[in-house]
Amino acid sequence: MEFSTNIYEEKMEKSLSNLQEDYVSIRAGRANPHILDKIQVDYYGTPSPLQSVANISVPEARMILIQPWESSLIKDIEKAILSSDLGLTPANDGKAVRLAFPELTEERRKELVKDVKKKGENAKVAVRNIRRDANDAIKKQNKANEISDDEQKQLEDQIQKLTDKYIAKIDGAMEAKSTEVMTV
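and the corresponding structure tokens:
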């Protein structure tokens, strides 16, 4: 049985993309419609993504405008936003819902950067756990005499290179998001 590093690389890639999805929901003072990606609205008894029941736009830097296809959804949209952990208060004019983004305080920015770093560290731990699993599988194959000691060393080196590559990508994502959050 040939040992493949591909499944471990896919798992590391998944950890990185999960981190990037988490970062999208951290607001950096500017209006970003992606913070609404996880919000579900009750649409005739079915939880539906907000994007599927309304038009979402960013008319100015600190405002998101949500125009539902049906005006009867306005109350449900407001309720969904209030019950989310966005910390934004929706305002409606009977036709649309507006989300105003207040200027972030220095203190709040620092809290957000801590959160960014914590999520990044969790992603790194996930990547290191994947490395450990891969190395365990490699050792198991060596013990069963399916691969030689040299092959074991080569595979462990490949896994380490993958780990280093994904840790560097995570560091890059952490740095970029921290900079974005601290930019006034």
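(Above: one complete record from the training split.) The first strand starts at residue 40 and ends at 43.
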